[in-house]
Structures are given as structure tokens and as C-alpha cells.
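Q: What does the assembly look like in three dimensions?
Context provided by user:
Components: two
Sequences:
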Amino acid sequence: MSITRVEILAKVTEIVQDQLDLDALELTADSIAADVEGWDSLAHVRIMIALEQAFGVRFTTNQITSTENVGQLLDMLQSLV
Amino acid sequence: MDLLELPWLPEVPASFREDVRSLRRAGAASMVDLRRLATHRLDLTQLSLLARVCAQASGALGERSLRLRILSNGTQDLVVSAVAATAPRHGLLLDVSAGLFGNWMHEALDPGSETARARPQYVLLALDWRAFDLAPCPGDTSLAEQRVGAALDQLLATANGLIRHAGCQVMVQSLVEPASQMFGSLDAQVPGTLRWLVQRFNRGLCERLSSGLLLLDTAAIAAQVGASRWHDPGLWHLGKFPMSTRAVPLYADHLCRVVMASRGLARKCLVLDLDNTLWGGVIGDDGLAGIVLGQGSAAGEAFMAVQACALSLRERGVVLAVCSKNNEAIARQALREHPDMLLREHHVAAFFANWQDKASNLRAIAQSLDIGVDALVLLDDNPTERHQVRHELPDVGVPELPDSPEHYATLLLAAGYFESVQFTADDRSRAEQYQNNAARKAESGAASDIDGHLASLQMVATLSAFDAVGRARITQLINKTNQFNLTTRRRGEPEVAGLERDASAISLQVRLTDRFGDNGMISVVIGKVDGDDLLIDTWLMSCRVLNRGVERAVLNELLFRAAARGVRRVLGWYLPTAKNALVCEHYAGLGFSCAERLATADGEATLWALDVATFQALACHLQVDQTALEAGPQAGGLMAPASALDAA
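A: Here is the predicted structure of the complete assembly.
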């Protein structure tokens, strides 16, 4: 049973909301870290780690540092799960 | 069984995220709420969610929270929230902060630093091998020794500086060696390899730990789960995270255990279920012959390992109790008669086998041992029982157990309920002491008539004259007994020694044992013979053995000795003090009559007299062991000729 892109986005949104303590945050494929309050480099690592745990995947260091927007993140997750 | 997953904790409930959020909205989480939530297998995300509620509670329950500051050569952000959220699992509330990575020495020693100003109760120096100059130098022994020595000096100087300036408790870590090697099996033998340097450092750290320093043995924890899973080089390069994120929850748990133990909050009592926990099967149905225990099967051996584990915990000071849904007689019989049973009745300080619910029994166990419910751990194979107890008594430690017993012992120990920061001789005898106390308490509760109770104690009093062996304890009793003390006459050891050889004195030291144990020396009497009179100048007793009739047995012996010496009258003063009102009627109760009353600054002093010729021995529930008395005043345990006794 494969997970849809919509479902992945929902889960990613939930995790980012928890990590950044922003209950009402909404994300789209075009969202970038710079636009979200508190999504600095440390928060980014924490978010990526939380995503690894939630989806049961492992990112390479390169993958963690090179994603430029949420859309790319979704692409990466879709290819790994 | 993977320790990184904290398998002894129950799985996180589906409602966790919502539970935490509603606590947050309500803004008033209690320790009970926090503890309930924290006592699950939480991953980093869940821990960071819970940490926010804990921070909120820290603010509200201000004085109950402790400040822990972490100074490190790495990034501690993940650890900070993990530790804050884990703390309530161990009954703690920790306000955790971290200094900037890499700045640890300055933060520790600069009196103007944020660390100094925060005035934390605990500072953790979370340093790994990269914090020190431990560059490998294989083959160069003196350089290797030098590097290790310098690193240790640096760490300990920082730690001690912190203690001096910030007045806090300091926790240091052992080093986890990287999961790789230079040569292979040779690394440990070649001075200067990283493995050699780290092992040397850790040994040196143990040797140089002084009181005031706590050790978090990360090397041991990492070894238990595997260094290759502990380290994550990618994370270090990414942001100086010192360990794999998967290891953080376990690390946080161990850290909290050490803090908990240092505050005296570690558990004291292991409560054991019986059926399918200590043996396979149900004793009530299967009988002695049917339960699975012993060398014949894997399960039988596994259950023996559980019993052996309980016994070794007892040996280091953990008290054992039984809580089982069983007929009591049948349960006791199993412990008494099964040939492969390692645990026996006499190892158990509180035995509760009945059909009541376990939570009620646990409360009763705690009460019978005079400890809090939060000092208990329940080992029970039945998930329903575990659930009920966790729900009703969230302070009891209840490890989650798998279906089959081979991991029970490992899990129990891995959970760290009995973590300790010291081990003394007192600890070793603790289980025994609790057992004796509990037994005495139970007896006095159960006996409805005093005589029956006293008789059942099976007391034996050993009376002997003063001797060299008892001298120190006699002197101690003379000088520190205040309540049951008729004259409060103090004497130093030389005077007491003199009484050993004083032919005009009748002196007694009294030891008491009962069914539950040896109470040691509990009474001292000194009388001086003066013509026809024996004047008692000292009569004291330990309050631990009040109302047992000891003084009657002592009086009987005193009168016997007095009569043998031709004494006609026994006299004794009661000299009142602020503390000995307890004994103002002591002589009256023994049949003396009041011969004189004297007003003094502290009240009315009274002189009491008893006629030897008309004295009848008083009934008491004690057996008196007189063998030591036969030896006479000079003997000190050796048999002396009978004539030495009847000095005129």
C-alpha cells in the first residue's frame, strides 16, 4: 500500500508544526524554510530527524542539506518510502 | 530485545499527542500527569512535545524543579528537550539548559558566565573524546600517557572549579570509543591508539573520581547497545551532534537516573508476582510438581534466572516482597518446599498472597515496610495487572515484559529502577533490617493480647557482668541513653573498665534477641554493695525494647545476685531530668516502695527500697541465658573458679 503525496504532505506538516510549535501552520509544495518562523538550520536538522523517524527512512547528509523547498522534500520522501 | 527502544516502558498511546496538547492548553500539568505521560517509549519528537509542557510546569511548580545545565563540545539541543521530558518518569522536574557548544571550559570557570549566573543545582560536562587532545600516537607510550593525563587534568580541574565557584553537583561522562579501529584486536594493546587512549582515560576517571562528582557511564551504556549504533558521524559533521538521535532517549533516561539516585529517590523494594513470573505455570492449579522451574528446560532456567536476579538485588540492598493472587498457604509452601526454588520465605520482607487487587496490596506492602509507594517496583507477567497498577498507582515502577521469561531479568535491570550513586555496608544489610522491622510490625499488629504477643516473640535475654568485649558499647549506652535512665549518671570508658574488676559492684550488661533478630546490647545496670544494702546507681535501657518485660528479668537476676551476697535491701534512686519522666514509676512497677522524697531543681527525686527476703521473682516472657554470668566479673568470657563469684 503506497502512501500518496497528499498524505505525505499532511504528515510532514504535522511534524513541522510540532517541531516549530506552530499549531496552525500550513505548507505547500512551494513553501521554503526562510518563510516559516523558527525554521533555522538547527530546526531544519531536527525536522529532518523527526521525518526520518516518522517515515522510517534514512537521509544522507547531502539530502538533509540540499532540499530547497517542501516540494523537493516530498519528492525525496516519495522515492524512499 | 533492543535497549535503544527502552523496551521496559509501555508503548506510547495513540492519544499521546492530543493528551500533551490539552495539558498545554490547560496550563496546569501536575507531576502525576507528567509522570504518566513520560512513562512510555517516547521518540525524540514526542519527547520534545512533552518537554514544552514540562517547561510550563517548571514555571508553575517553581521550587520543585531542579536546574540542570549541560556544557558540551557538541550540540545538545536534542538532549535538552529529551532530558526535560524524561525527568518526570523518575519523579523529577528538571529545568534543562545548555551552553553554546565548544565553550565549555569558559562557561564552567568564568564567574560571569551564564552558567554561573543561572546557579544550577547540577552541571553535566557532556564531553566526548573530541573535546580533548587525544590525537592517536600509536607506539609512543610516554606521549600517550601524557595526553591521557592532560585530558583528565583538564576535565577534573574544570569539574572541581565548577563545584567550588558554582556550588553545584557536577556530573562527568566516560568516553565512548569510536566504532572503528587502527589495527583490529591489537588496538587495546598498543599505547596511543584511540582505543587505548579512551580506555586509559576511563580507567583514570574512575580512579580519580572524588565525592561531589557524579559519573554518567556513557561508555558502558554505549557498549550495551553497540558503539556503531551510538555514533553517527554524519550528524557530527552536520551540526556537531555528539551521538545518534536514536541513542538520545536512552542517554536521557540514564542521565535522569543518576540525578534521581543522587537525590535519594531510587526505588527500594522489588515486589514479585509468583505465577509465570518466578516459575512457569500456576501453583494453585499445577501444584509443586507441575510448575516449571529448574535446570530441565529453557523456561525453567529462565525463571531461575529471574529468581537469581531478585536475590542479587537483595544482596545489594533492595528489599524483596511478594504480591500474588493466590491462596497464601499454597504460595508459601511453594517457596518453602520446591527443591529448585532459589527464593525462599526468609528472603521476603513482605508476603501478600490473597485475592485482593494488586494496587491495594501494593499500598499495604509499602505501609508494612514504612516506605512510599513510589519506592516500589512490580515485576508481573500479566499485562492486565500491570495496566491496572500503572493506572491506579502511577508512582510504582512497572516494567513492560514480553511473553516469554528469558528477558525478564535483563529488562528489570536495564530499566534502572534501583540506580545508585553509592554502596555502603549499611546497604548490604538493608534487606535484612527491613525484614526484621516488618516482621516486628506485623506481629504487634496481629497480636490482640499482649501476653500472647510477648510470648510469641521468643525473646532470649543474655545477662553478663561487665567485660572488656562489651566495654565500648556499655560506655556508649551510659552516655547516650536519656529517656529510660533512672539516674543519668555518666561514666567514661576507664571508669567502666574499673567496674569490671570492682568486687563491691554488681554490674550487668543485657543483650536481647527475639524471633526476628538480634537487638544487641539494650540495657545496663550498675549496683554497689554497701554493707547490707545494694544501691543501684545506674539502670538504663534502650527505648527500642520498651514494654517487653526486660526490666523484670533484670530485676530477678539482680535480686538473685544480691541474695547470694548476703544483701538484705536493694535501693534505687530516681533522679528526674527533662527527658526521663518515662521512668518515674519504674521502681514502683517492680514492687519497690518509696523510702524518701527530695525536692530538686528538676522535680521530685525519689528513693525506692525492696526487701530481699520477701522478694518473689517476677513473671516475664523472656528466657534468660545466664551462661555468661557464671563466668564472674574478671573473666570476660572465660570460665573462672566458682569462688570468685561469692566475694564477701
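Follow-up: Helices of chain A lie at 5-20, 41-55, 61-66, 70-80.
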